[in-house]
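== Item description ==
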Amino acid sequence: MQSRKAMVVVPAAIEGAALATALVPFVLHRWDMYRWDKEHRAQHHPKGVDHKEPLTVMLPVWNEAVLIEKKLENLAQQNLKFRLVVIDSASTDDTVPLIEAWLKSNGSAFLSHELLKMDVRKGKTAAVVEALNHIGQHQEGLICMTDADAMLEPGVLQRLMQWFADPMIGVVGAFPQRAAARGEEAAHRESWEAMRLAEAMVDSTPFLEGSCMMWRTSCLAIDDLYEQANADDAQIATSVRSRGWRALVDPMARFVDAAPLEASEQRRQKIRRAQGLQRLLIRQRKQATGRTQGIFGRIFRRQIHFHITAPLALMVAASSAMLRWGFIALYGWPATFTLANSIHLGFTVAELACVTLWWRSRQGKSSGPLSLLGQWFSSMELLGRALITTARGTSLHMWEQHDDVRERMLDVEV
């Protein structure tokens, strides 16, 4: 009798402990986010008004024939003179001829322009490293990296530049404005942006949007970038902050992009991104969490928990739940009015609620005030799948594009 009771109680205890381990740091971080926002929002604005520095805009491309002309026009309309460096990762479509033709007709839109051509595609981070080495580690001024499928709103580059009137600012990222995003994507992005903004207000955030981010050239150690992994934007932000400068986001600087409409494509995109962030967090855990890193060290440790520890803990919780149900299947439901029965019944109700919230979030459906919890479960699933992908030895730093995103961006006006 006691052994049957233990078959229910022990797995349930492990499940509860694992779930608490996964969830409690999120609750603490949400509380800190509220405090940081309340205490620092009024001071979160650039010091500069008419600050100017030499600017190089870096545009990595691969098979962007659909959008490249619109992207170049978008950059030309920023009403700011800068050096343009385009690096092509061995495109197999008409990207290069279209760039060359456009620059031949409109090259005066920029102070200068260069088109670098890679012989072999190696992934975006490798392209970024090659372009940065070409620009030079000690190049004076600022670098802005932007993607072909991100259309900058008017004045974004000028706005980002104003932050660098403060010599302690090393890198600043813009905010995305998603075009016709699915419901769960919009909710996920809202939570993600709130977290990054709160972290930036109190110190720095390790995660920025590579679609539009600007940094001081001398603040980035190019050797910190790992070419065999993606998340080049987070790699840059973490490198800059670890060397002593702040990494911020500006909610008033925005660009427009699009997320895949198909749920399967959206999950593919998020798993790829998750793997890149997980690999960064593991690789930089000692450098970014040292005693000299202050509050950023705490933020980085929590991000390690959110992206690695929490999904692993939920795997343990799910395994314990299945073990408990396996014992129930073998030995039958616990007797009524026993501790084992009460525990099993309570956990069963909680599990059904969690699975329902996860499934509804996965399908893009709202669960009212519990939607945030559903988004959390859905995110943990994707992070877990990213960990499994890495454990199998598969790297996602080179990926196929989402064609529907490019086509929809053709109709976007900024």
